[in-house]
Each structure stands twice: as structure tokens, then as C-alpha cells.
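Appendix B, Record 12. Input sequence as logged:
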Amino acid sequence: MQGKVLQVNISPGGVPKRPIPEGRLTAEGFDGDRWNHPEYHGGPLKAVLLMSIEVLEDLRAQGFPVFAGATGENLTTEGLVYSRIRFGDRFRAGDALIEITRMRRPCETLSVYGTGIQAAIYDERVKAGDPTSPRWGKSGFYAKVLEPGMVRPNDIISVEHMSVREEITEHMSVREEITEHMSIREKHAEHMSVRENEAGRSDAEGSLAEPQGA
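Logged structural output:
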């Protein structure tokens, strides 16, 4: 999976975050970036927030006046499929290496862009950790920094490690179940074929044993 960094954003606190030409990403986040409520935002496990420009464009189409940096993300990305991202995935963004840690739970701050924006990007299934939700990833992902480095617009952001997918196990189970059903059907067909052959032989033997007419 690969995309690009469309925009690097920081602010002294609150939304929106404004674009900068480049940023140094450390374990504490981008140099110069701040939060209005550090008790909820920031810290090593939420050092950087990623948001998809594709999601922002979809929100605009729904009538929410958002733009790159509007929702408080540090990295606005283009080309990454957020519905396929899972916790534990690692991405190389410019010179930095980051690991996805959790989903952003959108707070009331985003209501400045319109009532209902939170429900458009987050639901109870996402809250429960269900990646099959149609809103999975739409609120953005937090990440921790494994390797500090510079990040700039147009830098490549690509996956370096994908965490174990539960879906893989589920798909394997389904495949095994299908294989088992196919095997049962094949055995049944084979059994029926044997019975038909036996019945055919019996009919043939019976016809041979019948007395011949004058």
C-alpha cells in the first residue's frame, strides 16, 4: 500500500492546522505543534494524526466545509486506502517511520464544520474495533513515531509492515469450510455412482437369468 503526503500541518492548538513546507517528526509529534487539550490529544501513542484527502473530499460532497488540515490532522495523505489500515501497521513517511496505534475519536471541536460530521466518520462499530464498518478509518488514525525524521509534502508514504489480519484467518476458515463441503459433495457423488453401477450390474445379471421365451 502506497500513497503520498499531500500536506504537513501544525497549529498552536485547535483546528484547523495550517500547512508548513516541511516538519521534523519526533516521538512527541511535529516540532511546533500543540493541542488545546493535551490531556486528550498528543503524547507518544498519539504523536501524529493522519487523515485522508479522499475522506475530506467526500465530506465536502456531503456539505461539510472541510479542507486539508481542517480536522486537525498532521498529515493529510492521498492514495492510501484507510479501510485497509489496521492497528500495528507501520508506514514510512518521508524519513520517519510510524506505527498506527488507534483510531481518532472525533470530538465536539469538529462541530465547527457542521452538525453531524462526527457521525459521518465514526460509529459504534468503529468504536468496538470492527474493521468491516463502512466508516472504518474515516475519522483518521493516530500513530506513534518509531524513527524520527523530516516529512515534506509529496513525500511517499508506504507500508513497511502489516499487522496480522484477523480477516485472513476468517477467510482461511471459510475456504476450509468450502473445501470440506466440496469434499462431502464429491464423496456423495462417488457413492451414488457406485450404487448406480451396482444397480446396473444387478439389472444385467437379472436379465441374463430370465428364461427365454419359445
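Confidence is low (pLDDT under 50) at residues 167-184, 208-214.
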